[in-house]
Design goal:
It contains nine helices and no strands.
């Protein structure tokens, strides 16, 4: 990893967001680190709760050509940011794309469920959360995982 990029990341991790972004902006004209610089700028804005600025930086990072885990991180960050901005339909579409391309990314599911909840899709949101709990139960929930799976797909079932 480029030493200048690493230094900027360390600044961000120490909470020195403005200084981190200043250092990262110096790297934006260098094709080899441009996408990574934008991604770290996005994270810096996210860490400060500056969602609108984070959105722009996530988009720029993706346009600059991220791949693999970095692309996942940028898409996940962008989807979460869009949800926080109240842009639920684009967030939902992006969460669904992420879940298709990275089905093992369990960390996405609760945020996708929040987005569905925000859209009024309460049953689907509940199903995702219950299914996730049933797939990864704590020791105390283990005896209930089958019933949780049932209710994940039948949350309105009455007896």
């Amino acid at each position: 990893m480029d030493d200048r990029l690493q230094t900027a990341i360390e600044l961000r991790k120490r909470g020195e967001h403005r200084q981190s972004r200043q250092a990262l902006r110096l790297l934006l004209d260098e094709p080899g680190v441009r996408a990574q610089a934008f991604l770290n700028i996005a994270w810096s804005y996210d860490n400060e709760g500056k969602e609108r600025e984070a959105e722009q930086a996530y988009r720029a990072a993706l346009e600059a050509g991220l791949a693999g885990e970095d692309k996942f991180e940028a898409q996940f960050g962008l989807a979460s940011t869009l949800r926080c901005l109240g842009e639920y339909l684009p967030a939902k579409a992006l969460f669904e794309e992420i879940l298709i391309n990275w089905p093992q990314a369990n960390e996405v599911r609760p945020f996708y469920a929040l987005c569905l909840y925000n859209l009024g899709e309460h049953g689907q949101a509940m199903a995702i959360l219950l299914d996730e709990i049933a797939q990864h139960p704590s020791s105390r929930l283990e005896p209930y995982k089958e019933v949780l799976r049932f209710y994940a797909h039948n949350p309105d079932k009455q007896w």
